[in-house]
Amino acid sequence: MPKIYRIVPLGPTGSGKSQLCNFIYQDESNKKFKVSNRLHSQTKVPQIESCFRKINDKDYINIELVDTAGCSDSAGSDEENFKELIDKLRIKKSIDLFLLVFNFTNRIDGKTKDYMKLIANTFTPTEFFNHLAIIFTRYPEEPDEQDIEDKEIKTGEIIEIIKDSIGLADGQTTFCPSIYELDTKTKNGKFIEKFQATIDEILGKMQLMIDLNGSVNTENIKFCGIKDRLKEEQEKLEKQRLENERIMKENEEKKRKLEEDRRKYEEQRRRDEEKRRRELEEKRKEEERMRLLREEIRRREEKRKREEEARIRRIKEMEEEERRLRIENERREREYQERMRRYECERRRNSGGCMIF
Fold it and tell me: Which of 98, 34, 97 lies closest to 69, judged by CA?
């Protein structure tokens, strides 16, 4: 389901809220929201209408406009009208954008200031301020230097009134409300294109603002005066102070525990490091012992090989010597046999009977 962006225009009677709603709704007939030029508000009860509007020539967004009764009207029913508006908004549960609407040609009177304080003190100060845009209607299409100067003066006055009424100090808001100038009248039966582009800008910034801050929750809002609101804010601040003290104590305890854990961790790390160092040292010694053992085995093996080779060599030499002696003996035996044969022949010859072959 697409997001419904709920927009609530607020402001004095005759400032152009209903006409602005027609302008946003893009109803150039100005009949969707009733418009009055009289001194009292044409809108007596909040009028709620929905529409789809294309912005920046690309995206359609679902908008719900809540037109409200103006303040400072001749009937003097600001409080009753505002209470009825609160009941409606409580049912709707959320608001995405407040539009504070002012007729650029009018001055900001005392009743308008009181109404602004009433609005600002009904909602959480920072939420209201961070979801606020200020609209000047009936602004000239081609403003001169005096118009620009007047706008700056009125803008500063409005923002200061809001801040003062809700006790909002500098730095408590996410950003300052954007200021827009519009002329919602038609020109040749058409809304002025320049100001329609301004509406696109307002809606585009609203989307970004909702992404950043979310919507304003209105389920539990209630009407309260300025004093009640200030008292409520003071009670919230006191609760916040106590909560901050509790959080600080918890943080201190967490910090102490963290420091203790860090100390234990460091001790364990040192023990582990010492154990690892000892293990490495023992491993190094064992490796050295094994190296020496291997070296000793290698030397013994080499010695055994040398001794074996020497033994084999001696055996071969003995065998060779034995063969040589055998050959020598055989040779001597042959020589002896030859001498004996010659001797026998010589003896026989001397005896007269020797035959020589």
Answer: 34
